Amino acid sequence: METIGVGMLGYAFMGKAHSNAFRKIAYMTWPPPLEPRLVGICGRNREAVDEAAERYGYDYATDDWQRLVDDDSIGLFDNGGPNALHAEPTIAAARAGKHVVCEKPLGRDAAESFEIWRAVEETGVKHLCAFNYRFVPAVRLAREMIEAGELGEVRHFRGRYLQDWGDDPSLDTWRFDPAAAGSGALGDLMAHVVDLARFLNGEPGSVQGFAHTFLPGRKVDDAVEAAVVFENGSVGTLEATRFAHGRRNALQWEINGTKGSLSFDMERMNELQVFRADGDRARGFKTVLVSEADHPFWEHWWPPGHIIGWGDTFVHELHHVLEAIANDRPIAPYGATFEDGYRAAEICDAIVRSGESGAREQIRYRQASA
Amino acid sequence: METIGVGMLGYAFMGKAHSNAFRKIAYMTWPPPLEPRLVGICGRNREAVDEAAERYGYDYATDDWQRLVDDDSIGLFDNGGPNALHAEPTIAAARAGKHVVCEKPLGRDAAESFEIWRAVEETGVKHLCAFNYRFVPAVRLAREMIEAGELGEVRHFRGRYLQDWGDDPSLDTWRFDPAAAGSGALGDLMAHVVDLARFLNGEPGSVQGFAHTFLPGRKVDDAVEAAVVFENGSVGTLEATRFAHGRRNALQWEINGTKGSLSFDMERMNELQVFRADGDRARGFKTVLVSEADHPFWEHWWPPGHIIGWGDTFVHELHHVLEAIANDRPIAPYGATFEDGYRAAEICDAIVRSGESGAREQIRYRQASA
Amino acid sequence: METIGVGMLGYAFMGKAHSNAFRKIAYMTWPPPLEPRLVGICGRNREAVDEAAERYGYDYATDDWQRLVDDDSIGLFDNGGPNALHAEPTIAAARAGKHVVCEKPLGRDAAESFEIWRAVEETGVKHLCAFNYRFVPAVRLAREMIEAGELGEVRHFRGRYLQDWGDDPSLDTWRFDPAAAGSGALGDLMAHVVDLARFLNGEPGSVQGFAHTFLPGRKVDDAVEAAVVFENGSVGTLEATRFAHGRRNALQWEINGTKGSLSFDMERMNELQVFRADGDRARGFKTVLVSEADHPFWEHWWPPGHIIGWGDTFVHELHHVLEAIANDRPIAPYGATFEDGYRAAEICDAIVRSGESGAREQIRYRQASA
Amino acid sequence: METIGVGMLGYAFMGKAHSNAFRKIAYMTWPPPLEPRLVGICGRNREAVDEAAERYGYDYATDDWQRLVDDDSIGLFDNGGPNALHAEPTIAAARAGKHVVCEKPLGRDAAESFEIWRAVEETGVKHLCAFNYRFVPAVRLAREMIEAGELGEVRHFRGRYLQDWGDDPSLDTWRFDPAAAGSGALGDLMAHVVDLARFLNGEPGSVQGFAHTFLPGRKVDDAVEAAVVFENGSVGTLEATRFAHGRRNALQWEINGTKGSLSFDMERMNELQVFRADGDRARGFKTVLVSEADHPFWEHWWPPGHIIGWGDTFVHELHHVLEAIANDRPIAPYGATFEDGYRAAEICDAIVRSGESGAREQIRYRQASA
User: Fold this and answer.
1) Within this chain, do residues B75 and B208 fall inside the same structural domain, yes or no?
2) What single-letter DSSP state applies at residue A136?
3) Residues A162 and A238 reside in one and the same domain
4) Percentage of chain A surpassing pLDDT 90?
5) What is the nearest CA distance from D324 to chain B, expressed in angstroms?
6) Cross-chain Cβ contact D55/A306 below 8 Å
7) Complex ipTM more than 0.95, yes or no
8) What is the tally of structural domains in chain C?
9) Are residue D240 and residue D163 in the same domain, yes or no?
10) Is A227 in contact with B235 (Cβ distance < 8 A)?
11) Do C140 and C288 belong together in one domain?
12) Mean of pLDDT over chain A
């Protein structure tokens, strides 16, 4: 079986999630498009990265990402580091001819994200921005139903990502450092909302809203609120917060169309709520347990009803990348490219600007210069 | 038992709901503060209003509301007519010394609502704007919990009222006539969202958003979307629509505080979702079936778990009015006064203006002139 | 409008529920088949029954049920008294030519229930045993769907009625007195389960199970458990208890057929869960909000989504009785007759016998003697 | 790191589930008690087992289980083959000094299960019967809460395992062959219900019920129904079926005690419903998302709210086995031993006997002969 060498930047939360996925791809998706070989992993804490290499089975650990870039046995560079470390290593890896995966948000703002996208796009390698929620079976099923016209004309998209761990002034991680993170709930959570809005409902045309910080002294935003108009004529609300007690990982969205509605909550990620305006006397939202043989990604898994977990979304996502590499197929539209990463950032920034100016902001994407 | 004569304007949806409530008050709330005597009912369709009088037991029917105003045996004038018929009869009744109940929205816009409030306030009668959802036991319980500080400092309020009957161009009722209704989803649905936001979370400080019309030729708004900042520092979203297939009467809100969260859906009106950030290892939202002996309004009803219906909210609401009249107690804060009706309209109008100008709108209430 | 005089035995829980229903029928169901006129109400506590007469509007109160039996202006005798008071007054009223309604359980055991049924049946009057849950819109919809073959061949019926108020040794009402009540959870709760099993799935053929008492000194059963085989070949479980903390009025049942399934919980009585094995890729249980214009009983109520309460089931039930009287139509099959009341008792008794003997009990109904 | 060689019998559903778990243990549980080394895998279809060896990374494939038994590099023999292949290879492996894991049901009936248990027990190796649902975090949390007395005295246990794939006469697998499977829903599904009943609520004392076959010509049972009395004085129902349309993997149980209740559904395996009878005015079942740092097994996984899947229960289960081996700790009480496997079979057989005789069956466990 053909293999591909993987170089991983980051060994903590995302490093674990991606490494687990690479290992499971080798046997859960069978046969895999390419067998991932874990070559090198990079992190700043030498002891921790050594342990991570042993734990996940990388050939070596390093505290110098340049070593991964220079390693010819690595064909895929996966960046799961802090946001401030997305641009330089990812661009360097792409310029070294490696395919690249980068965690979201792509850059710390739209300008940086644009720069990353353009630099990488020019190299011709495959690039995926790791909006993993596109790879939840229920989300993909939703996309397929919408593409097939099952919702008719869309009237509403309302999305929110609610978490509750931010209401603690003593928290002190890179996620609260503007230089490292770029933003707070905006890039961490709203970026996901915006990506799913685009994935399921197309481009937003304008936003009115704001980012907000609750805690005195906190240097990034804690919550983001917006009203939105989409180019397809639908309207809705977008929200992200780290201050919603009781909501642990509640990425929720609902979409209403002329023929039906869909509703989703990541805390019940194996379920999709489906309403069909079909005139059945017994009408209502169906709780669809998305685990059937004819459901997305399910060829990799278990008999119906035997549900999967959050970590498995990365199996689907990275499998998609490997398939794109193996067969020279595009990442888009089911995977998010760096262009999608950039576009999400542009929308996020527009909400911030709307908050600063008080004015409605049109979404305008930068053009690649000739 | 002391009685009070009731004059009712309107015999259709709201006329039925209010008449039912007056009749049930006489025996379900025991002893009632005042026994309602159904004196006269008014409507434009002579045949229909005659039937309504017979059906609900009014002494007489009329197509001239002035007759109700002139009838000295009527002590309470209840206006359940179309929005355009709110101002004149209600003011006239109050000036004739009758206590007044008026369906929401109070007027067709903030200006008219202000005028109604001021004119009626000057007469000294009791006035209630029929935001009946304040009288859902779960909503009252929420209010009591918030007042008792059980949520701590509030961070978020998100409210939406989703219905799905508007997506039909052939619909032709007064509700789509701007002259009769003033607005569409705005006054019909958003007014409820805004009133509950104020009831549970206090005054909004500013809004950014818009009203939107989907159907060509429709003369009122179909949906309203907004981001909102409250004076207490909390933020959130507000939404109302008649275009959400599968949502029949989904007035939903959630409120997150530093000590806990509450969540509600009118389609499951007997339930309140309660999260307490109390460190219990088994933490999560409780589904509270609001039907216990120590729950609001339950002294009127059944053993625990024997739930009530939408129509019963009017029993609580009009009972509250009768109690205020009988004992000269204020309608506020648990009932909505005409001032509350006006304030809801001011916020609704601000969203519309924000949509027209694209700018953030501060909520500023008109002052009663000296 | 033609009227019918009503005589009511009992003024507490069931007296309130039935009186409320008679009053609402007069205007909520329009035009009513007969207008109920509340003539007399009977109870042993003279002060309480006097107040009840005033409260609900009965012409007179009495502590002698014979007075109701002797009153020619009474056409319908409604027995909501304790179980021990079901037989004699109900039979006497029927023999006096009055139509009769009797709360469940019909008698304190199968023998007494049989006697009541036979005695009343011979008089030719209409008789209804007040299994009110047949008159929940969701339950009626289920029945209609089953009758229409929408479930195919039934495989399973599992029913349970869970309450939680019994776990208190200090409780001391007639419900714990074997002479007054006949049994505990058996007649109070299991009778409902058994009636719905018969209503939705037909006759049970045999049961294996038992009644059980948890509290030392308690003289009636606290819980009942059984496995059951139905004559149509389906199988399942039946359960009733007053010892299920957190379940307040949880009458729950599920029925599985070759074409689909239905599921119900009385605590969410406005909802029916519907699964159709129709091959839709998006398959799952629908949460049907049973409140549409084409749903059972909804012609009496509100716009869709505006739900009703437990008390409203009695409006449907007693309306059914009035319609049967007015138009000489049968109570069965949608209403429960005294024969249904007797049959439920026979099944309940069979479970008790199975517990005593340890043996499977066949359900055998007594034959009316020639 | 110390390793242990694994020999696997079976490569299909359970072979995949167990192999996946062994591989994930090596890095998700860190450091693992022993690093599993996949040595050999056995199956009858030569081509399929060759592929499985390559896929999951076993050193070799074989169609002769004796080879695994004879292989000294194998320290743990894992039997995921059809039920008829449980006894001989498992006993042989244990006698060869290997620790053993065996899928449930342990044997095809109580007699065979007893024989397997006794034979293996005598060898002194560790043995686990793979009742994996004990290793769902929510189930373990329930056990811990019950052990800590949080439910008080237990009154009820009701359990059911509902699936819906059996209603198809064309199905033809070893699961419908009595010689290979021993039984149908009984050993496949009811065994799980019975094991969880014992795990959470202790020993059943007697059962009344039956096994039932719907389809003509089917040679195993399709459904099982029982009423049960437990030795601790609680009572309830037990059910298993493959004929419940819409229920895909619905292992559901509820337990009611004097201080509270717990409820669970495997289709929402990350959630535990918790009711505390603590007098809180806001009382109700909490939906606990069992994914917190202080929840069972969560040290291996992700931040709160990032849920896991069905396959991950095997990670916990086999990790438990490795820990028991590495540190010579007992499998019981959190893992199911072969004695637990035998006891489940004894209870299952008692239900069958009750169905045949119609009589209540006492649960009596065989004694190991001296």
Assistant:
1) no
2) S
3) yes
4) 98
5) 27
6) no
7) yes
8) 2
9) yes
10) no
11) yes
12) 97
